[in-house]
Specification:
Layout lengths: L5 E6 L3 H13 L4 E6 L2 H9 L5 E5 L4 H14 L5 E5 L4 H10 L3 E4 L3 H62 L3 H25 L7 E5 H9 L8 E4 L4 E5 H17 L4 E7 L2 E6 L27 H11 L3 E6 L5 E6 L3
Parallel strand pairs: 1-2, 1-3, 3-4, 4-5, 7-9
Antiparallel strand pairs: 6-8, 9-10, 10-12, 11-12
Helix pairs in contact: 1-5, 3-4, 5-6, 7-8, 8-9
Length: about 350
């Protein structure tokens, strides 16, 4: 089922019935958070907070209060599942409850029957709400696919044409203004690539293999504009990871270190994982909680998405990441929970 519990509010004063309902729900291992109150006024306040998924009203508490509560709730929320339960119901009460917008009206002879019926109804509502959430996720994924399509084609194609035209212009004219345009094109290409990575990467890594940290880091270093920087790998440890995604993690951390002035980039192990450190100016304590937020960057040429991608890759592996100060005074990224 879903990790989020279904918040059920039971309005009634029958403790025995409440205990029976709780027992049935626990027996079926339904992910329910059951809250009880005998007060109609308090019920209105709780519902007004907006985190109630289902309301069960015991009409034996007060039939009139139940109908009035239903009417007032329906004025503000037409969709909240509202279950009216009674052991002494009548047809007129059932008809009125239905006309007022009750989701379900149940009349049972015993408390046990009533609690089982209510539990089954809540279970049904839980399944229906899960279906709604899944549909919402699918819609979001569809929109994400549309977005990646726009980025991949509608943005990349004109950028490719512009870059080609710029190359031809630079063959005929040596101009600082053209070099500014070239840098802008390069930055746009980086942004497009990072946006596609964020959009296309899933939430889990499935292509897991045994990888040597040292060998992978040496390979990654060749793909980064290292200028005058040096790589120092102090570990021969192997870990279980998705090669392509771990490769991108190292490349992004290497670029981040160099863009921020690091001349020595060190990769080593810690008790629960590994670290990537540099000897640059470091990251102020007050900024460390924000470095993984999209758009955060202090480098002139940075996209602000590199570290967000790093965090996404880390979480996809089920690891953790934090940033602290390295022994050389620069930034130190620690990846923990690594097998």
């Amino acid at each position: 089922m879903t990790n989020q519990p279904i918040n059920v509010l039971y309005v009634g004063g029958d403790r025995e019935w409440t205990q029976l309902l709780t027992t049935v729900l626990e027996r079926e291992e339904t992910n329910i958070d059951l809250q009880t109150t005998p007060s109609v006024d308090r019920t209105r306040r709780i519902v007004a907070r907006g985190n109630t998924d289902c309301l069960v009203f015991d009409c034996d508490l007060s039939r009139l209060a139940g109908i009035e509560l239903l009417r007032s709730i329906r004025r503000g929320d037409e969709d909240l599942p509202f279950i009216l339960c009674t052991r002494n119901g009548t047809e007129p009460l059932a008809s009125e409850a239905s006309s007022m917008g009750a989701t379900v009206y149940r009349r049972q002879q015993t408390k046990t029957d009533q609690s089982v019926a209510a539990a089954n109804l809540i279970r049904h509502i839980e399944i229906e709400q899960l279906r709604v959430r899944l549909k919402t996720v699918r819609r979001h994924n569809e929109r994400l696919e549309e977005f990646t399509s726009v980025v991949a084609h509608d943005l990349r194609n004109p950028l490719t044409i512009a870059s080609g035209s710029l190359e031809l212009a630079m063959e005929d004219c040596d101009s600082d203004r053209l070099r500014v345009i070239e840098r802008a094109h390069t930055r746009m290409k980086m942004l497009v690539a990072d946006l596609l990575t964020l959009a296309r990467d899933g939430t889990s890594s499935t292509n897991i293999t045994q990888l040597s940290i040292a060998e992978l880091c040496v390979d990654c270093w060749q793909n980064v504009d290292t200028t005058n920087a040096t790589l120092n790998v102090t570990t021969d440890r192997s870990i279980l990871a998705d090669r392509n995604r771990l490769k991108q993690l190292f490349e992004n951390l290497f670029r981040n270190a160099i863009e921020h002035g690091g001349k020595m980039v060190t990769v080593g192990t810690i008790d629960t994982g590994f670290h990537v450190s540099d000897d640059g100016p470091g990251i102020p304590i007050e900024n460390r909680d924000h470095v993984f937020t999209g758009g955060y960057s202090t480098a002139a040429e940075g996209t602000g998405l590199g570290l967000q991608i790093v965090k996404q890759i880390v979480e996809a592996h089920g690891w953790g990441i934090c940033v602290t100060e390295g022994t050389a005074g620069g930034a130190r990224f620690e990846i923990t929970g690594v097998d």
